[in-house]
Amino acid sequence: MRRKTLGLFLVAFFGLATSASTQPTGPELIAISAADRQAASPDIAIGVDGSINLIWVDKGPAAARPAGPPPGGHTHKAYNDLYFARSTDQGRTFSPPVRITTTPGELWGFATSKPRIAVSKSGVIHVFYHGNRNDRSAERQAVDARYTRSTDGGRTFEPARTLNTFTPKAYDDGELNEAHCFGTMGVAPDGSVHAFWIDTRHMTKSGDNGAVYGAVSRDEGKSFERERLVFKDEACPCCQLSTVASADGKVYLSLRSVYADGSRDGSVARSDDGGKTFSQRARVSDKKWMINGCPLKPTTLTVDKDGRVFAVWYAGEVQPAGVFFSVSEDRGKTFSRPIAAHPEAKISDHAQIAAGPDGAISLIWDAKVGENRRVYWRVSNDHGKTFGPVTELETPAGAADYPAIAAGPRGKTFIALQQDGRVMFQALPELVAQKQ
Amino acid sequence: MSTFSSHFGLLLLAGCLVTFPGAKAPPAQLRPELLDPKTIEPISADEFRRLLVHRRGEVLAVNLWATWCVPCVKELPDLAKLQQQYRQRGLRVIAVSVDDPEELDARVRPFFRERAPGLVSYLQTEPDQDKFVSVVDQAWGGVIPTTFVINRAGSLKASLVGRKTYEEFEATVKPLLSEPSGKPH
Question: Is 0.85 exceeded by the ipTM?
């Protein structure tokens, strides 16, 4: 009853606030992006000082687009901008949005290739995204892996740097002739920055798989080592990568691998030498998704303080298709029997996961139970062996999707999501409180 | 039976009577270019719903594709062949592009003209792509290509996820073509 009342209060408050720009809409639910802009695909990172750092894709003035969520349709051409906002009071208020990309339309980013943000212990804010090398008038497009950082709490960002070399693929598809895309980034406890991306340079014909390249900074982003080839031709070229570093310095990388039998499944590789070399990939599930298509589905990772590796992904080989979860207790060599996150849903997708300092594992995703996609979450307090009940996040009516999640150092968990063309934020202290 | 065939079999929703929302509503006036498109026409979810109602009595294969999706593009000729082979028996292949609407003139129309002459195609324009596809299937997972096969009565009979061969398409639609028409008029 209390939750219901709170939800109604939030809905009412949110409704009142949609005409304002970046104003708090309630004690917990806050519209971050401006009301007159179309925003999507948020990512979130928490600093050791408790600061909440958000980035999102800005698709231009809302007036130029139809009402509602960002336009449907995907393209190999995207000309968007990247924005940032920060809270230093546990999410009660946020700074005005700051545009990170300096050239309008530079960002090649959308829901299935989200820009990434991370904060190192020293407070440096790291941002990784994909940028258009040419403006929209160019007939042939090229997309680069770009990195920038802020050393002043997000007030300013350094000029972005390209991490990849320029190497076109061996054939011309008439459109996106050179791509370093669908990438990710993570920061290790020692401050090293690990960026990875899917690369087209080894493709010789239409339909070839992607390579995975990576670049590492050992000095918190001041400089990067030259790119390294991680996997040459095993990656589904449209499924975003994910990476995470554990407290013991191991770096984990997930990709949707394309295997010789035609299956496309989530897999995880581990580096014990700071990203120089990686192990063989381990499947997160022994079930195979035999799919010759474009799933656009990542496998997302997190680690807990004891080094367990947690993975969430979309499994298309089961009915109903949807989000599954698994945990590795042996540093990514093997994964447990998958658990369905939301088997009652018609469809579930876009899962993210966070490990809290107390060991709680928070899983969040969007799913369709009724007409619209809504955001749901569950918590595990036994290292992923079991999860609490599926709970719908209380947001205004309509479609809410593409959540992002991060656990703070003081036991709170925070999420961002997209709804009605805006990026929203909510603190979720009750996620941790609902221990079984 | 291979793993692939087994999986394909599981995807067949034989006997599942999933009618698209709004099917009971009488078809309102549709733009003439949507009934007989000469090129790729933009189409909203509501128009698509009414178009499907209008096409009751035919077996429909609704294929989601995009110019940037290599497996999609590779199966278009098989769909065109299927259309040609079974048109007289009441099959209609409807290809729906999920490309960005801003790319319609510059990219999608020329591309489709070159790669799949003879097929009918639309480009979905909904801000929420899921809303569009939900006209046919509430449980679409966002994967392309996906081909939804609908019987003459307007019921979804199969969701074919990923690229399929001509033989797989044929095996799905052929039994439905033998069924009596469910057209109410």
Answer: no
